[in-house]
Amino acid sequence: MAGWLAVIVVAVLAGALTNFGDMRWWRVAGSVAVMVAVVVGAWWLGRLRVAVAETDGDVWLHVDDAKLPMSAVAEVQVLDRLQYSDALGVALHPLAFVVQRPWIGRGLRIVLDDPDDPTPYWIVASRRPERLEAALTASRESVAA
To answer: How high is the pLDDT of residue 143?
Structure first.
């Protein structure tokens, strides 16, 4: 929340600096446009798509640009705040794939079972890790069937 407060302050300052105290309509419109652009830009930079999708008969986990076939997933674990913090600290494997968002304190550990991949697991930040775990578990069961 503090991050969004900082974004709003920067947006208001940027809008005020583009106006120069002149209240003509086009300068006010320009200031509003600058404020909206700053807020939309911050939202766009902070977004990250996490989805489970079926493509050509295979089920994949998409985390932004990274893709993981569900056939390579051995186990999915929900991490609470303490476990998530520990998993990102000294317990982190050097070859682990991590998608972290600092403002989210929970996530998932997705353990892989692929002998050709040196990555032992993925750690993915999620606001609703239980929902993501349910989707991954259901997709793993559909792959196994």
So the answer is: 63
